[in-house]
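Quick entry between incubations.
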Amino acid sequence: MVAAPPAADSIFRRNLASFMGNRLALASAVVVLLFVLMAIFAPLIAPQDPYETDLFRRLQPPAWVEGGEWGYLLGCDALGRDIFSRIIYGARISIFVGLTVIVLATGIGIIAGLASGYLRGWVDIIISRIVDILLGFPYLIFAIGLMAMMGPGLGNIILALAYKEWVIPARVVRGETLAVRELEYVEAARALGASPRHIMLKEILPNILSPVVVVSTIRMANVIILEASLSFLGLGVQPPTASWGSMVSDGRAFILEAWWVSTFPGLAILLLVLAINVASQGLRDAFDPRFHE
Amino acid sequence: MSALLEVRGLRTVFHTRAGEVWAVDGVDVEVRRGECLGIVGESGSGKSVTFASVMGLVRSPGRVAEGQILFEGRDLRALSLREMRAVRGKEIAMTMQDALTALNPALTVGEQIREALEAHDETLPARGQPRRAAIRAKSVEMLGLVGIPSAESRLRQYPHEFSGGMRQRIMIAIALACRPKLLIADEPTTALDVTIQAQVLELITDIRARLGMSVVLITHDLGVVAEHCDRVMVMYAGQVVESGPTAEVIATPRHPYTRGLLASIPRPGLRGQPIRPIEGQVPDLIGMAPQCRFYSRCPVRREACLAPVAMRPAGAGRSARCVLLDEVPA
Amino acid sequence: MKPLLTVEHLSKHYESRRGLVERLTGVPHTVVRAVNDVSLTVAKGEILGLIGESGCGKSTLGRAILRLNEPNAGKVVFDGTDVTALDPLALKNMRRRMQIIFQDPYASLNPRRTVAEIVGLPLKLHGLASGEEARAITARIVERVGLKANQLDRYPHQFSGGQRQRIGIARALVSNPEFIVCDEPVSALDVSIQAQIIALLLELKREMGLTYLFISHDISVIGYLADRVAVMYLGEIVEMGPVDDVLANPRHPYTQSLLSAVPEIEPHGRKPRVRLKGDLPSPLHPPSGCKFHTRCPLAIDICRTLAPVSENVGPGHQAACHRLAEGVSLMSETGA
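Done. Structure below.
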């Protein structure tokens, strides 16, 4: 048989084209990509060893301020470590925590949301109640409590954040599932004898993935802020590992005489979070047909 | 009798990513005073776009490219937006197929009728209590006209509190609030059950006689046209293919598409006999060659059909767009 | 002749959900009797038309027969097997033999699956074929319903409504079923396409020896293709019989008004019009007695209190109306 030309998923292509047409979103996506590359290739990019202390460079100002030097672009912290290099390494923590938490949370959320929305009944009641309870706690206080129980550390930070983060995709998935399960193609699959597992994973999931991806991207910015907050409070990764949140915290004591110690990691958080947010808005506009004119 | 609405050589184009679509391509329409004209066609035939063009309601990426739209001798295409707004609703009114989405869910029925009256009715007292009372009286009268009982209390209700048939009646009431000379009813009964459809169609026919207005009934149902319209225009792929008095067109269709359409309708009397559907599908209008548009599906196509085909007279008051009319004398 | 499908006293009720406040304040359950005590049979090779207006429960009945929604009471017997008593595995196997074609050619196909995946799914689910063999079978049925085998890898949005309906038909037929519920399969289509699909369904029935329950609101379609017809009103069958008989000599006033409302193309075919009062009552609060009495021009006192029982009014022709014995007809009563 002559093979038909591979049918392009033109919906996806149109969405992609629409996203590419949004210049601001595209620029933001490039910024996010740069941060990711920076994190991956940190050892190659960083001009200095981020852990090397040098008391002679204690609170050395940025290069363009008097007393600065170009090898230490953004100045040094209280232990004389290069801030620029530490920001580059800190990106590893932020992005790793953000991605891992989101992947974990989205995975759990999809399973919980599909089960809740498709199976209904007691499964839905139990999952929805858990979601309601978790949503009732303020996020940061919840995470602080967990961290206090489990102790600081990278793995624990991821657990503490994913522990609650999954309820967001779960709610989105449940809502979308409730709408899609009523469509006739789902009923058709049932009429053909398909199992609930097949229906949830093969019929429903592919059709609700776009909003989930969009929401997860938006939430990633949030998770990065939360990680920084926990690190700022000293509940995150432990010194000497560089984390943007703990760097901001370190600079607090010298904010008047050495503003650069806190400001530059703070700006890094701001820039990455802003870029993710703008890019995800663009994604939403492109993938949500309601925003197509 | 002079024509109330006369459309000449109307062409409406939609610019899409894939190319230009001439959704209406050289359509002539004549609506006489007091008559009911049926417009029949399947989806994509251009029947709704034709009258959206008449109303000046074609929006980007669509555009009325050519043609004259004469309403009582005035060319509507030459009017300013402001002047056109004065025509819409007051002189020509239109009802939509889906009454649930065409009515504003956030306003009561009474408020929506009042909006129509306030926009156009100059006979209302200028302001204050007399004006409110006059609007109220007219609103009650309109609901009564379309057969909605206990109109006083129903004016305070919202569209979702009415059934589908009642909503269609309300839309007709709003359309008729300013006594237009022409009512364009776009698929008024497609969403309705057959017993309710019969009620609404009888209502339209009844009001037409009482108010002496003209009605254009856009539908895909030849049966509806047969029972309610004096004349019929059959549209296919953006063009009129046949027009004439309804009974004659149905008894002796002159265009192969009209014939195919009539043969496609399942009838209890034909049980056991094979149905003879029109093969194929409506052609893609993008990049359509200037030929007979029914060519690809026509059982009697010939070489002459590959050239542009114009409407030809086909008997008294009748015309059709088919080269066969030249071969077989009418 | 032994029927292929027997439906006995089938009911499907939906209970409205009550919130906590409503439960505490003792607001009673409201029950929608979407299908209420329906009995019918379909013989092998027959087309039973099921007709009624929106909300009459005809689609719910079709789905309850296939157990796509679970009936609350009653029995469905298919080829000697009680479908309502089957466990999930046995039901899955039964699904190969009982299929459904849907109304909406857009909503009934998964937009993210290719034609080959959609049509081939039953083969995979029931382990009937796989790989090259499954693709060959899929290609054959797709060609049989009038599409091309080189369209197998396309997605639903690349097809027109009529073509999509053909894909839905191919999916229902690929596992060689015996019985198909056709749930308004042509209602969403244009007239010329509708005729193509009707012709296709009739051809396939003949070739594959199928039996149809054909649900429609279009009396012309039912009159053209059905052997027998059942008329539904508010969840109940009010009249059932051979299609010629019911169309020519309708006995229930609802059937009479339904027939008279159909617009006729031929002037000589036009029947005196019977106008029904008002709209369909809300199924949440169905009328007492005969459910049609609120709109029936012939209603008398007994109709408001007592539900009529179905009686024989001719060979294989039943109707449920208190005034049958009197021989009163709506056509004569209104004098139209």
